[in-house]
Amino acid sequence: MVNIAGREIYNGGKTFIIAEAGINHNGDITIAKRLVDIAKHAGCDAVKFQTFKSDELPFPNITYEETKELKRYCDHRRIIFLSTPHSLSAIDFLEPLVPAYKIASPHIVNEYFVKRIKIKHKPIIASTGSIIHQNKKATQEEVNNFIRLVNHNDLILLYCISEYPCYNFDIEEFEDFMSRYGQIPVGISCHEKGIDYTLMAVNSGACVVEKHITVDDDFECPDKEVSLNPDELKELVKSIREIDYEL
């Protein structure tokens, strides 16, 4: 069992739903706050952003000070604030702001990066996709090595295919993944168009869901093609809660 800001997360428990705002705010904090509101209104447990150094990558960026403002806004709206660090300085910066660290797929094979997060002694949520393997998934050896490196109980693994959009989801592969790592809470970070693959995973036992969101279908943003609009997000949450009730 993993506890994140008072929410107990475990296989067979109520699904922990993360709205992935990511960088779909285009560097505008007003839009970022709208994404928080959308996640809260839909009934998500958490909303997640991404934290870069200002000169690190050519992505729409929110400054460290604006990130602090977003954290305060999430507290005000009573939704859990999460953010994925993409640098060592971002790991340190986020320490007082997040109740758990999210590790993006490319970083799970970065031993120094993982160790820097491990010493913060917070729960870890890790995606297991890949940007170097043809099938867009980390190998079993890579995931096993990551688990050994983390070596603590506050770990959640997200089955992930780093394909945008994802067309190759195989429910049997997901169920094999769950079976292999069944002692660890397992969820899904899926980049399909729509919500079908995600709901299949929840039906099979995923206890964490991460899904990209956007303010609306006409808004141009980096992950538009794989992001849910507010109505689609509400539909996803409603469907997940129905599955939770049935289970």
Describe the structure.
Helix 1 runs parallel beside helix 2 and helix 1 runs parallel beside helix 8. The protein has eight helices and ten strands. The chain is globular and about 40 Å long. The protein has one domain: TIM Barrel, CATH 3.20.20.70. The strands form two sheets. Strands 5-4-3-10-9-8-7-6 form an eight-stranded parallel sheet. The chain is α/β, with parallel strands linked by helices and about 250 residues long. It starts with a strand and ends with a helix.
Topology:
Elements: E1 2-4, E2 7-9, E3 16-22, H1 29-42, E4 46-51, H2 64-77, E5 80-85, H3 88-94, E6 101-103, H4 111-118, E7 124-127, H5 140-150, E8 155-160, H6 171-180, E9 186-189, H7 196-203, E10 208-212, H8 230-246
Parallel strand pairs: 3-4, 3-10, 4-5, 6-7, 7-8, 8-9, 9-10
Antiparallel strand pairs: 1-2
Structure keywords:
247 residues; alpha/beta; TIM Barrel; eight-stranded parallel sheet; two-stranded antiparallel sheet; 8 helices; 19% strand
Short description:
This protein is an alpha/beta fold and 247 residues long. 36% of the residues lie in helices and 19% in strands.
Count the helices. How many? 8
Shape summary: globular
Mean pLDDT: 94
User: From N to C, what is the helix and strand string?
Assistant: EEEHEHEHEHEHEHEHEH
Percent helix: 25-40%
How large a portion of the residues is in β-strands, by DSSP E?
15-25%
**Main sheet summary:** 8 strands, parallel
